[in-house]
Amino acid sequence: MKISRYITGPIQVNTYLVYDETTLKGFLVDPGDYAPVITEEIRRKNIDLRYIILTHGHGDHIGGVEGFRKDFPQAPVVAYSEERELLMDGIRNSSEEMFGRPVTVDADLWVKNGDTLQVGTMQLTCFHTPGHTKGSMCIYLPGQPGCCFSGDTIFRFSVGRTDLYGGDFQALLASIRNVIFQLPDDTVLLPGHMDISTVGEEKRGNPFV
Q1: Alpha-carbon distance 205 to 77, whole Å?
Q2: Among 12, 24, 57, 110, which one has the highest count of C-beta atoms within 10 angstroms of its own C-beta?
Q3: What is the mean pLDDT of residues 79-85?
Q4: Helices and strands in the chain, H and E counts
Q5: Sign of the Cα pseudo-torsion (100, 158, 88, 7, in order)
Q6: Exposed (0-12), middle (13-18) or buried (19+): which is 204, by Cβ within 10 Å?
Q7: Which is it for strands 109-111 and 77-80: parallel, antiparallel or unpaired?
Q8: DSSP assignment letter at 187
């Protein structure tokens, strides 16, 4: 598995391009803004992009969906079922504030807790992790070590804000303790902002939990 990280959009979102080096099938996580360099890498390496996955619906994580949909119309946009309201409302998802215009997304595939997606030899599991938003989710790939795309649920020694629409601090803590912290300690956490971490590091040092 190969993971490339790009910083996109006005709020410096971590956008991840992930692909299976054996089958060249891949997926994109949280396109904060349209970045042609990502399209160039996908085409240069002949990656078969299978999904565009959204960890949640805030404007800073969805600003590039429209552009990548045009480049890769075969790749369905995936989001958690309870995130439809936020994705479809340019005020509640804060995109008007961030971009000066509403950005809305209607996903092609709405998933639920425990649903899996197969991308080449990679099996992705979708875990519902509400708190930052009602329909936030994390994407887990087992391995040695495994990795978890945690969106804005948890950051390196920090957590996602809960003062925006649909936020709930107690739900956020429950998601971290009951979902993310149940993963193996060596699981690499790939958050929506800032640097990577591991489950073990966050258990030992995250001051919020």
Answers
A1: 34
A2: 57
A3: 98
A4: 7, 14
A5: positive
A6: exposed
A7: parallel
A8: P
Q: What one-character-per-residue DSSP string does 19-83 give?
A: E-TTT-EEEEE---S--HHHHHHHHHTT-EEEEEE-S---HHHHTTHHHHHHH-TTS-EEEEGGG
pLDDT tens digits, 100-134: 899 999 999 999 999 999 999 999 999 999 999 99
**In this structure, is the dihedral angle defined by the CA atoms of residues 127, 199, 27 and 120, taken in order, positive or negative?**
negative
Quick one: what percent of the chain has pLDDT higher than 90?
Answer: 97
CA–CA separation, 149 vs 161, rounded Å? 17
Comparing CA positions, the residue from 199, 136, 202 lying closest to residue 169 is 136
Q: Nearest to residue 111, comparing CAs of 129, 126, 92, 91?
A: 126
Residue 99 has pLDDT above 90, yes or no: no
- Do residues 14 and 191 touch, judged by C-beta distance below 8 A? yes
For the full predicted model, state whether its pTM sits above 0.90: yes
Quote the tokens at residue 123: 């099996």
